[in-house]
Amino acid sequence: MAKRSGADTIVTNRRARFDYDITETMEAGLVLTGTEVKSLRGGKASIAEAFATVRRGEAWLVQAHIPEYDFGNRHNHDPTRQRKLLLHRSQIEQCEKFTQEQGRTLVPMKLYWKDGRAKLLIGLGKGKARHDKRADIAKRDADRDIQRALRERQKA
To answer: Is residue 150 a part of any domain in this protein?
Structure first.
């Protein structure tokens, strides 16, 4: 079997850009156990309710759900345990400074394989208010209508 190169997506957080105004992204490695890696290889995970935080100079992924490995034994992992994120010191300090302001958070956006290692794309974002979400929906609907009108015009 040929070795794949590049990035293979495991799971994406589809609501991240809808609920948050993402200003910047960064890639982080994950500290995982063996059964977590095997479960991820099966394509099972959920980062919809997850968030990242900085404590005592270390970055952590909280509330991410990686289900237990089906063929694991009594040494199987806890599905919702906190996982350490591997970032450079300057990136951790940037994340800590960013989250000090009110309403700002670190949002996990995508979990994927890169060169055989699990990586997490973290977005630095600010939560959107309800009216901001409505504006995004209205803009998306307007763009869709414009594209539909252009397609119909090209047909005629």
So the answer is: no
Residue-wise pLDDT tens for the chain (156 aa)? 445 555 688 988 888 888 888 889 999 999 998 888 888 888 888 898 998 999 999 999 999 998 988 887 888 888 888 999 999 999 999 989 988 888 788 999 999 999 989 999 999 988 877 777 788 888 889 999 999 999 988 887
Across 50-87, b (16+ Cβ under 10 Å) vs e yields: bbbbbeeeebbbbebebbebeeeeeebbeeeeebebbb
Which residues span the domain enclosing 121? 7-128
Domain count, the chain: 1
- The answer for residues whose C-beta is within 8 angstroms of residue 115's C-beta and 6 or more apart is 5
Q: What is the pTM of this model?
A: 0.76
Q: 85: domain CATH number? A: 2.40.280.10
Is 123 within a domain? Answer: yes
- Flag whether 101 is in a domain: yes
